[in-house]
């Protein structure tokens, strides 16, 4: 009798714990799997530091470096100068840098961006929904998106350098040129 009561009680506790975890994940949202290279990048709409709505769709026709970051993340802030340098050097070739801050106060983010003289686009993911759609678990994460809106590279961790950005943009541009040549032959 005691044993069946114990089993019953542990089952109830386990069920309640499972429901608590499920409800927490529904409230905070759980990250999906990272998008597959070659698949369409999930569109989104977020506000910039001035409260203006921006969407991924508005950058169609450009190469987008989409970076998920936070001010408290040392690897994130360490790679931002490389992003800025590459943006300065490659914007005429169609590179757009969009840094998506996760869950931080707009004033804190604005102060950080101004203090470091970054001029790329910064958006605020207040409820972490965009990061979840891109499978972001841990920061930083960078996603390279080609001119047609397809994911070309997914970089986890603080591995972003100016050289890597240049190399990736060159690869995306070369693939686009090859595709244009192939299409003109048909």
Secondary-structure blueprint:
Elements: H1 2-28, E1 45-48, E2 53-55, E3 63-69, H2 74-90, E4 95-102, H3 106-115, E5 121-125, H4 129-133, E6 141-145, E7 151-156, H5 162-185
Parallel strand pairs: 3-4, 4-5
Antiparallel strand pairs: 1-2, 1-5, 3-6, 6-7
Helix pairs in contact: 2-5
Protein model, in words:
- It is a single chain.
- This protein is α/β, with parallel strands linked by helices.
- The protein has two domains: 1-30; 31-185, 3-Layer(aba) Sandwich (Glutaredoxin), CATH 3.40.30.10.
- Helices cover 45% and strands 20% of the residues.
- It has five helices and seven strands.
- The chain has helices at 2-28, 74-90, 106-115, 129-133, 162-185, and strands spanning 45-48, 53-55, 63-69, 95-102, 121-125, 141-145, 151-156.
- A hairpin with a 4-residue loop joins strand 1 and strand 2.
- Helix 2 crosses helix 5.
- The longest helix is centred in the N-terminal third of the chain and has 27 residues, at 2-28.
Could you provide a short overview of the structure?
By secondary structure, the chain is of the alpha/beta class. The chain contains five helices and seven strands, in the order H-E-E-E-H-E-H-E-H-E-E-H. Strands 2-1-5-4-3-6-7 form a seven-stranded mixed sheet.
Indicate the mean pLDDT.
Answer: 87
Radius of gyration, rounded? 21 Å
Helix count from the secondary structure assignment: 5
Q: Report strand order across the widest sheet.
A: 2-1-5-4-3-6-7
- N-to-C span: 78 Å
Shape field = globular
What are the low-pLDDT stretches, counting only 5+ consecutive residues below 50? 17-28
H-E order: HEEEHEHEHEEH
What proportion strand? 15-25%
Would you tell me which CATH topology of the largest domain applies?
Answer: Glutaredoxin
CATH evolutionary superfamily of the largest domain? Glutaredoxin
């Amino acid at each position: 009798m005691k044993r069946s009561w114990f089993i019953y009680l542990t089952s109830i506790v386990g069920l309640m714990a499972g429901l608590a975890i499920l409800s927490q994940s529904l409230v905070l949202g759980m990250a999906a799997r990272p998008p597959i290279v070659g698949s369409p990048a999930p569109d989104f709409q977020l506000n910039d530091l001035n409260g203006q709505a921006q969407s991924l769709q508005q950058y169609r026709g450009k190469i987008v470096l989409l970076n998920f970051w936070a001010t408290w993340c040392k690897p994130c802030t360490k790679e931002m100068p490389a992003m800025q340098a590459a943006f300065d050097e490659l914007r005429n070739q169609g590179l757009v840098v969009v840094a998506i801050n996760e869950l931080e106060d707009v004033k804190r983010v604005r102060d950080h961006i101004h203090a470091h003289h970054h001029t790329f686009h910064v958006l605020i993911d207040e409820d972490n929904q965009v990061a979840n759609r891109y499978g972001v678990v841990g920061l930083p994460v960078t996603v390279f998106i080609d001119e047609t809106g397809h994911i070309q590279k997914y970089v986890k961790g603080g591995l972003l350098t100016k050289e890597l950005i240049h190399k990736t943009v060159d690869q995306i541009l070369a693939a686009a040129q090859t595709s244009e040549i192939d299409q003109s032959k048909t």
